[in-house]
Amino acid sequence: MNINLAIVERARAGEALTVAEIDELGTSDILSLGMLADEVRRARVGDSVTYSRVLELAKGAQGAQGAQSAQSAQGAEVRISVLPDTLDDAEALIAEARMLAGPQLLTGFSLADIADRHWGKLTDVLKRLKRAGLDAIAEAPVDRLHDAEEALKACQAADLPVRCLSLQSPISGDGRSSWLVHLRDLVKKFPSIETVNPLSREQSIAVPTTGYEDVRAVALARLVLPSVKTIQVDWAQYGPKLAQVALTFGANDLDRVSTVDDESLGHRRSPVEDIERQIRAAFAVPVRRNGRYERLS
Q1: Is the pTM of this model over 0.85?
Q2: Measured between alpha carbons, how far is residue 210 from residues 203, 228, 240 in Å?
Q3: Is 247 in contact with 280 (CB distance < 8 Å)?
Q4: Rg (Cα) of the chain, in Å, rounded?
Q5: With DSSP H G I counted as helix, E B as strand and the rest as coil, what are the percentages for the chain, rounded to 5?
Q6: Is the backbone of residue 120 left (phi > 0), alpha (psi -120 to 50) or beta?
Q7: What single-letter DSSP state applies at residue 3?
Q8: Residue 61 near residue 92 (C-beta atoms within 8 A)
Q9: What is the DSSP letter of 165?
C-alpha cells in the first residue's frame, strides 16, 4: 500500500499525526515508509549518526579488574546494569562505580525498576542516588511505569535526568499507535528528553518480531515524534545487520557499542572500525559521542 500523500506532507512538516494516520502509515509499503523516514531524519538532524561506547558494570563489579576496565574505556559511558535489592546497596554500588568511572558519565538502572522497589517517595530515592554519584537514569521503559508522567516529574525534581524513553515488552500493531502518541505527549511535557528507543527490550517467545516489524517501528517513531532528536537502536541487542538497516529507516544513534578492543582478527574488525563502517555503508557520517551526545575532539 502506497503512503497517503496528505499524511506524507504532514509528516514532513512535523505535524501531530492522529492515531488513524499512524495506523495507516503502519500498513503502508515498508520501503516507501523507510524512504520517508530517512528523508525526514536527514532534514531534521542531518547526516550524522552518533554511537556510544558503554562499559556495563553488573551488580558486584568491583576491584582492580573493574578499575582497569574503566580506565581502558576513556570517553565511554559507564553504566550500572543491575539494580541491587536495597537502597543502601544501590548507593554503595554507585559510590564504587563513581570511583571507577572518574570523570566519565555514570548512568544506571531502569526507572521502572527503581519505582517497583518501593523504597520510599520516588523523588527522595532519586535524590539519594544522585548524591551517591549517579549522573543519570539509563532509561525509562514507559510501558512498565504505572504513571510515567509522575515518575518523570520525580526525576525532574531530583535533578536526575533520564537518558532514554524505551519500551520493555513488544506492543502489538493495535496498540502501537496509541503508545507512540503517549510518547509524543511525554516528550512534549519533558523536552529535555531527546532520545527514544522504539524497539522492545524483551521479545515474545511465542510471537517474536521480525526485522520488517522492527524497522517499521523505527520509521514510525521518527515520523510520529518530530521533537525527538535521537531515535536509538541498541547495537548489542539487535546486532549490526538490523542496526544498519534501521539507520536507513530514521534511526540516528547506536547504543552499547563494546569498549573491548579485541583486534585479534585485525584492526578493521575492532568494534569502533566495524560500527563506523556500518554507519558509512548507510550513507551517514559516524560521530562517537562521549555520553552527552557531544562530538569527541
Answers
A1: yes
A2: 10, 25, 15
A3: no
A4: 19
A5: 50, 15, 35
A6: left
A7: P
A8: no
A9: E
pLDDT digits over 209-218, tens only?
A: 678 899 999 9
As given in the structure block, the three cell numbers for residue 144 are 512498565
Tell me how far apart the alpha carbons of residues 18 and 5 are, in angstroms, rounded to a whole number.
15
Q: Which of 153, 100, 154 is nearest to 127 (CA)?
A: 154
Task: Of 54, 93, 51, give the one whose Cα is nearest residue 70.
Answer: 54
The x, y and z cell numbers of residue 184, run together, are 509524543
Q: How far is CA 275 from the centre of its chain?
A: 17
CA separation for the pair 31, 216 (Å, rounded): 9
Q: What band does 95 get if pLDDT is binned at 50, 70 and 90?
A: very high
Q: For 60, how many CA atoms within 13 A lie in the half-sphere containing its CB?
A: 1
Which set of grid coordinates corresponds to residue 285? 557520517
Length of the chain as a residue count: 297
